């Protein structure tokens, strides 16, 4: 039973999201694109963070992780850069922009491009599959993704 002082309910992946994630098991990663959100309100100190991560595979499919609408968890949705920038231009008068960058050759991703995505692991709590973080297991090279309200999409090496 919940009272007014309990923590908010957990955000979770939908059944369709879980099916989508499972469908990428066994696919070969060919490219990684990071979509950077850049705030130019203060030109001397621009703020940049990763807004979305798009994984591209050898069969031409794409898997994109970004923030859900509340900024509390991961969302799976196609990311259309032009549309995202049009929305931001209207809302923020051109002071916030998004750029797509090929991150395939960065230190974070260079060792897994060309490898098979063996499995995507999510957190299970009771009957929910939480969208707080995922682990992308590329053979013996896992990476983690999670959302931070202040830092956007956080990508890291997996450590036990």
Detailed description of the structure:
β7 (128-138) and β8 form a beta hairpin. The protein has one domain (15-157). It is 13% helix and 47% strand. The radius of gyration is 17 Å and the shape is globular. The longest helix is centred in the middle third of the chain and has 12 residues, at 81-92. It has helices at residues 15-23, 81-92, and strands at 27-39, 47-57, 62-67, 74-76, 96-102, 116-125, 128-138, 141-148, 152-157. Mean pLDDT is 88; it is low at 1-8. With 160 residues, it is mainly beta. The protein is built from two helices and nine strands; from the N terminus they run αββββαβββββ. Strands 1, 2, 3, 4, 5, 6, 7, 8 and 9 form a nine-stranded antiparallel β-sheet that branches.
SSE string, helix = H, strand = E? HEEEEHEEEEE
Low-pLDDT stretches: 1-8
Helical content class: 10-25%
Strand percentage lies at over 45%
Q: pLDDT average, as an integer?
A: 88
Shape verdict: globular
How many runs of DSSP E, i.e. beta strands? 9
Major beta sheet summary? 9 strands, antiparallel
Total helical segments: 2
Distance between the termini: 34 Å
Mind telling me the C-alpha Rg? Answer: 17 Å
Structural class: mainly beta
What's this model, at a glance?
This protein is mostly beta strands. Helices cover 13% and strands 47% of the residues. It has one domain (15-157).
